[in-house]
Specification:
By secondary structure, the chain is an all-alpha fold. It has a single domain, classed as Ribonuclease III domain (Ribonuclease iii, N-terminal Endonuclease Domain, Chain A, Orthogonal Bundle), CATH 1.10.1520. The chain is 71% helix and 0% strand. The mean pLDDT is 93.
Length: 126
């Protein structure tokens, strides 16, 4: 199966794990000693609202490649049978798109681009 044929919601499923792992490692490596404190730092970034905020910002900056934009548009327009928690549907779709592009980049083996995206997200927390 070609990566472009993978369901975008499956890409988002994978991307969600990678995104959260990256953010958690970032704060652990900053030396935060408490799980409670780690959680307070991580949750706003990994929740749908945080992911959607970064996606919108990057779209405004024309940060994504055409290939990435294709994945983002497919994911944003995908029919999801779940209902969002703690956010509106548009925010949820933007978050899904952010996760999908991370999942896609992982499956095509472009770890350096994932690093670039995640570093850009986390630069304000350094």
């Amino acid at each position: 199966m070609k990566v472009v044929e993978v369901n975008v919601l499956v890409l988002a499923y994978l991307g969600d794990v990678l995104y959260e792992e990256y953010v958690r490692k970032f704060f652990v490596l900053k030396g935060i000693p408490s799980v409670l404190e780690l959680q307070k730092k991580v949750v706003p970034i990994v929740q749908a609202k945080g992911q959607a905020k970064f996606l919108a910002k990057f779209l405004e900056e024309d940060f994504f490649t055409e290939e990435e934009l294709s994945v983002i548009h497919r994911a944003r327009n995908a029919k999801n049978h779940g209902s969002p928690k703690n956010c509106d549907i548009l925010t949820y779709k933007y978050a899904t798109a952010m996760e999908a592009v991370i999942g896609y980049l992982d499956l095509v083996g472009n770890k350096s681009r994932i690093d670039e995206i995640m570093e850009k997200i986390l630069e304000e927390y350094k």
